[in-house]
Design goal:
Elements lengths: L1 H16 L27 E2 L15 H13 L1 H22 L5 E11 L11 E13 L5 H67 L5 H35 L8 H4 L12 E2 L6 H4 L1 H21 L5 E14 L14 E10 L5 H69 L5 H36 L14 H10 L5 H4 L3 H10 L2
Parallel strand pairs: 1-4
Antiparallel strand pairs: 2-3, 3-5, 5-6
Helix pairs in contact: 2-4, 3-4, 4-5, 4-8, 4-10, 5-10, 8-9, 9-10
């Protein structure tokens, strides 16, 4: 009868486990995005599907390509993001393990007992025992299912977070590279203008010494020359700082990039066409949008997890062992005799029925956090669309500005030639020469800045569109050095070997959405 009852208990509990988990089912929040970009169809911006995920290659600069590849392999922040993926994967393993018996213990003892004389006996004896016990809280209300659901969403969110880190890193590398080239160009222009203004100063100085001109013209020429010379150190400082920033992005200490940067020169050239897709593509392409959705999914599972505390939890506990004892130590062999066997098995439940106020407020806390996550998802989508529109507007505006400034520089250069010629021939005073040279230098600086801002706005646009992470699957999740160090410290099983392919699987899944 005892075995029949035990089997009946197990059968009933098995039926209870099959119930659906409590809590709300996740519903992805909807966000209405406009069907088209308001700033597309201008200056090469085409609202067509993006076919080049490696967007930095549109600049056709091999030095830039090399820098991006190196940053992907060596950047420390990206490495940390990859390690967080492994951490989340291990947390998922913990959640999955909770489905099975949560406690499995083996124990043994051999104890010599000497009872007190007032207990009614004075015989000393040995007590030996060995056995095992287990306890299994059954997943009746879906507590552990919800835990797995939350941990799985958190794991996928960590992958999206690494994809986002990859996008930001790539954008930083291209932006820093652009800053390097801008400062190089500004430095070159300043040095050219120093040569030009030095010639004018030499002419004014000769004329003054010959008595053909006043000292004022010579002093004004020297002032302009010194002012331009004074701008050179600021460009050299900015250039050095930009190179140091690039070293940091590459995971290296300062220094050692000069030879690589010497392989190319000039501000990156804009592509003729730029594929920007449609607003709805942001929901698939931007990792931070996917991360916000997964964060809401994980929080939705936590609401169900909190609700399970309203109901009783059922457990199945069992133990089996061998026990023997007697005076002296000769009875140890009896531990393995047939009558030394002892076991117990049976169900139990716990129901915190007087704590409903605390439990319901805990559910409210989780539900409020869920609503925050849903609103954050909508806000993330809206901000993503705004960033894309802002970048397109900046790109279009700086493109127009650069076009005008090209003509402005041409005009300023011609004005400088004419004013210098007229001054030499005595048809105009030196003030016109000073004004023309100063204007030329200013307009050249403005043109370089505008061209650089155009590239930076394009980088911002690619970052806003969420491109570049698709190739993450071809790279290991963590570096070989980190993998080796972690293998030496702990048993990671096959997780470290999976680190080279796990991200690739996620990229494929994300692309299929």
């Amino acid at each position: 009868m005892t075995l029949r009852r035990t089997a009946l208990y197990l059968l009933l509990l098995g039926q209870l486990i099959s119930c659906a988990p409590v809590g709300p089912e996740f519903v992805k929040p909807g966000v209405d995005l406009p069907p088209d970009w308001s700033e597309a169809n201008n200056n090469g911006l085409e609202p067509v599907a993006v076919t080049q995920p490696e967007w930095w290659r549109v600049f056709a600069d091999p030095v830039l390509d090399k820098l991006v590849e190196t940053a992907w392999e060596q950047n420390n922040s990206l490495e940390i993001a990859g390690l967080r993926v492994l951490e989340a994967r291990a947390q998922l393993g913990i959640a999955q393990g909770n489905q099975y018996p949560q406690s499995q213990l083996a124990a043994g003892s051999s104890t010599y007992v000497s009872p007190a004389g007032n207990f009614g006996g004075s015989s000393n004896f040995w007590q030996h025992g060995i056995g095992a016990s287990t306890s299994w809280e059954l997943d009746f209300w879906g507590r552990f299912q919800r835990g797995i659901e939350s941990a799985d969403a958190a794991y996928l969110a960590s992958l999206a977070d690494r994809d986002q880190a990859l996008i930001l890193l790539t954008a930083q590398v291209v932006s820093t590279y652009t800053a390097i080239r801008i400062n190089e160009e500004q430095l070159r222009i300043a040095q050219e203008n120093v040569i030009l203004q030095q010639r004018s100063y030499d002419i004014a100085s000769v004329l003054f010494r010959n008595g053909s001109d006043s000292e004022l013209d010579m002093q004004q020429a020297q002032t302009l020359l010194l002012s331009t010379q004074a701008s050179i150190p600021s460009y050299e400082i900015a250039l050095k700082q930009a190179i140091n920033a690039m070293n940091t992005l590459l995971g290296d200490p300062p220094g050692g990039l000069e030879d690589l940067l010497a392989g190319s020169s000039g501000i990156p050239v804009l592509p003729k066409t730029i594929e920007v897709g449609m607003p709805a593509d942001l929901l698939r392409r931007r990792p931070d949008v996917r991360q916000a959705e997964l964060a809401a999914l994980a929080q939705n599972a936590r609401v169900g997890l909190a609700e399970t505390d309203l109901y009783p939890s059922f457990s199945l506990t069992g133990s089996i062992g061998l026990v023997a004892g007697g005076a002296g130590g000769s009875d140890f062999g009896n531990l393995f005799s047939s009558d030394a066997l002892t076991f117990s098995i049976g169900p139990s439940f716990i129901w915190p029925f007087l704590n409903y106020g605390r439990i319901r407020n805990s559910i409210r806390v989780q539900d409020a956090r869920l609503q925050q996550a849903l609103v954050n998802y909508r806000e993330t989508v809206i901000q993503a669309a705004r960033e894309a529109e802002d970048s397109m507007a900046a790109f279009n505006g700086t493109q127009k500005q650069s076009t005008i400034l090209v003509d402005t520089v041409v005009s300023a250069r011609r004005s400088n030639e004419l004013s210098t010629l007229r001054y030499r021939e005595g048809f105009s005073d030196y003030q016109r020469v000073l004004d023309a040279q100063q204007s030329l230098f200013t307009q050249q600086q403005r043109l370089v800045s505008s061209q650089g801002n155009t590239i930076l706005s394009l980088v911002g646009l690619y970052r806003a569109l969420g491109g570049g992470w698709e190739r993450a699957g071809s790279k290991p999740l963590i570096s070989a050095q980190s993998r080796e160090q972690m293998q030496q410290r702990a048993n990671w099983g096959n997780l470290l070997e999976e680190a080279a392919t796990i991200d690739q699987q996620q990229a494929v899944e994300a692309e299929s959405r």
